[in-house]
Every structure is written in structure tokens, then in C-alpha cells.
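[Primary structure, fold]
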Amino acid sequence: MSAAHTGSSAQTTLQSGTSDKSAAPPAAPIADPVAFTREFSGKFGGESLRYRAVAGETYIRDEKGVPIASFFSFAYLKLGVERIETRPVAFIFNGGPGSSAQWLHMGAFGPRRVLVPSEPENAGAPPYPIVDNPGSLLAVADLVFIDPIGTGYSRALGNKDPRDFWGLLADGRCIADFIQAWITENQRWNSPKYLLGESYGTTRSCVLADMLSERYIALNGIVLISAVLDLQNSRPAREDGGILSYASFLPTYAATAWYHGKVNRDGRTFESFLDEVRSFARNEYARALIANQHRLSPAERAHLTARLAGYTGLEESYIAQSKLRVPPERFYKELLRDRGLVVGRLDGRYTGVEPESAGESAESDPTFDAIGSAYTSATHVQLNELGVRMDRPYVPLAKLYENWNWSLEEKALIGTGYVNVVPFLGRRMRHNKDLRVLVASGYYDFATPFFGAENALSEDGVVHERISYTYYEVGHMIFLHEPSRVRFLDDVREFVQPAR
């Protein structure tokens, strides 16, 4: 079917950037937004249905009506729905900051997906199998995959500096503009609405939920996939005082050591072992981290060293030399040093071989080495399937974090400390009695440790009885392990189902 050229727009309240544009040349005329539309049929959740796929641009505008940015998105919409207000719509994005939505699009929720080995093996070179996805969330909701500005085909327009969109508040604000435009263009104001974010996408979801509420756009649910919400619980740093994050990482160390056979399993199940580690981490270990080495007796240090070695699979001598604190990047290298292997950051199941075993950190992440090409290739196949033709390359990953404004204040303050977006989520849960949250975590995820998410969400202000937790024997990308992917999709469908 031929491509239909359509588009939509919205106003924004983005603050002006700090760069000097007075000498900038006049911008070239901005063409109308373009979209490519085709119709397909498939079987999802046991139901045969027809759906429309729309891949295209949505412009957001400043207060004068001038287009300032173009969002590219992929929308999949069930056809023949009698009462559109009963059909949920899910807005989906990945993280980074700097990632397009290709991972959740072509790995989990889209109508098609790429096959990579379920076990932690390298997917190698193309061609990669790309197949129908009967487990797609399209069974219960319409889907909108959003590529943030600077990723995919999304970009700033005219003389607008793209850095104006790269920050905690600026990113949330412009995506709120996009969502408002999309629900207006598609007449979905009264449909149940969900946010599904992975990694930094969970940070974004909390800010975005708050900003949407300012426009009287209420959410039915938020799915936090591989959540990172309070960076004090997820970013160990010896220099700037983030000591309690070492406790948050300990259960992930232990789970990975269990997976690779580096701890004693006698008389334990995996779950009981992790519960034991959690208890130790938030009690003895947390107190020891606060006390620091010089306020512990020799007997206390010896006791803690032995316990940490037993949970992490590392040698007691290494724990002692590290003064009870082992950063993740050292753990990747140290755990399987005796086997000449490093473990993955995104997924500790994966291993890689390096030129030598003496270093302190890995040369790359074996997880990305294994699957990056497969997902990028699959995205381009899907673009071709939808008839998309653009005059610029699709950007799957960009290093936007190098220019990211991490301030949660409109006027940045010096020494604002660790980012914590839990108060945003708590405010929205307290003010919206129907907002529910699903937290989905992988046990072997070092990018966003599951115990860090648990610790962040134990804070005051959130409505704990409306938060559900699910766990999977996989790392950051839950869809990489086939049993976990199937159960994960079932869990998300069940979470969305009540609103139908």
C-alpha cells in the first residue's frame, strides 16, 4: 500500500537554550511532517485482528506556532474497534538517555520481533530471523513507540539547538507535548493510557507522569522495566558519597555468582539465597558501609569479609583489599578471572573473552556485543516493511548523556546531588486513585540493580499497595531470555487488561 503523508503538531513550553543563536543563519523552510501508513493482519493473544501501522513524524511547536522539533514514532492501531474509548493505548520508550525505542519495539511489544539465542550466546552476523510476535501487547492495547529527540529519525527543527531537549525536565516536557498531540490527533483523550519505559525510560516515566497531569492527562498505569529511580541506590561512587548503592548492588552480584556456580548452593533455593542476601545487605552491610573501615573492629571486618566473599564468589583477600566495596566494573572482570572471562553489564549471564585477564575493567559489554547488530538490523527491516523512506540515517543509539542536563530544577543549582524521581511518582499516585505501577526487574542486571529499585520505592510518599513487583532470570533486557520474555509479556498484558 502507498504511504499516506500526514502529521500532527502541538505547542510546547520549552525554555530557551543557553547557546547564542543571534548569529545563526536563517533556517531553511520546514517541510510538512510525513507519515507512512500500511495495514496488516496478525494473531495476537489468540485473537486474529487487523491493524494499521503508522510510522511518521509529529511536530511540536513553540508559543508562536513555529515547529521546533520532529518526533518520529511507530504506532500500531487495531482496526474495527467499536468503542475506541475502551481500547488502551501504551506509549513506549527505551532509555539511555540516548536510545531509540528499537529494543522494546523489536524485542518485546511490537507485532514483529527479532530472534536471538535465549541462552547467553552471541547472535553473530546477519541474516537474523525476524518473525511474527503473537505475544505482542497489541492483543490488549494500541502501541506507540517513541524515539526521543536525537534518536531514530527524531530531531530538532530550524535553528533550534537539540541540546534544548536533552535533560530531565526538557525531555519530559517535549514528550508530554508529543503525547498530547498524538491523543488529540487520534481522538484518544478518553482512552486508558499507559507509560512503558525501560532503564532511563523509567526515570523519564516518573517526570513525564507529573508533567502530563499538569495538562489534565491522567494515567491508568506505568510499567517500570529495569527501573532506575533514585541514583543514590544505583550508582556506586567512592568519591562522592554514594556508599549505600554498594548494598543495592550486592544481590545482583550474588545472583550472578549463583548463575556461574561461584557460590555454595547447598540447602538453598535461588530465591531463599537472594532473600538472605537482601537481609544482610540492608542490615549488617549497610551499617558497615556507614561505619567505614576505620570504625570496624578487626573481628567485624573479618566477619563481613567472609560473608561478602560467600555471597559474591570473590576471594576474601580481594574483598579485604577493596575495603568491603567492590564497584560493578571491577566485579565484571574479577568474578570469572580464573576462567579468563568477563561478565556482561547489561546481563551478567553473558561472558566475553579479552586479550588479557589482568585488567581492572572490561573492554566492552559482552551483552551488547552479542545482540546490538541483530536489533538494529531488525529495525531497518521493519522500516522497509512499513515503506518508510527518509533523507537521513536512523540513529539507534546516541551519546546524549554526554550533554544531558540532570537537574530537576528549572534553574540548575550547584551541588544538587543524586537524581531522585520517586517524589514525582509518589505525587501522581497520591493524586490519582487509579494509577497502578508494575516494576519488572531482571536478577542479572548491573545497569539498574533490582534491589536498588526496591530500596528507592520503599521511600515514603508512594502508594505501596498499588505497586507490583515481578522478577525474571535474565538481565536488563528481559526479552532476551525466552522463558522470561513469555512470562514478562503475560505479566504486562494482565496489568493492562483490567482497563479494557
User: Anything to note?
Assistant: The longest helix spans residues 270-291. The longest strand covers residues 47-61. The mean pLDDT is 90. The chain is about 30% helix and 20% strand.
